[in-house]
Predict the structure of CopG family transcriptional regulator.
Amino acid sequence: MSNLDDEMQAEYDFSQARRGPIVPSGSHKERITIRIDADILHWFRDYVNSRGGGSYQAMMNQALREYIEDQSKEWETLLRRVVREELQAASVREPAHESVVDVSPSLSSV
């Protein structure tokens, strides 16, 4: 070993060191391995770099989240349309509520 290695070992104690990130990621994040098409990955990286930097992974996560939220909105819109159509169809099928008027002569007027 060189003198620099000896000096570093004397200065720093790594006996209690652990491998891994210094600052752990949030508990709601999960590390995965995923294969992404090269053009998709390049687009996200280029987009982030063109905006001055940042995390392309966070941007991909946000894009996926927005897609999921839009999917639930489409279901809500569809459900509302179906309910509206069914209510309209039900109102057409129901007989109209007409008031009954008694036109027979009244006995009290005789």
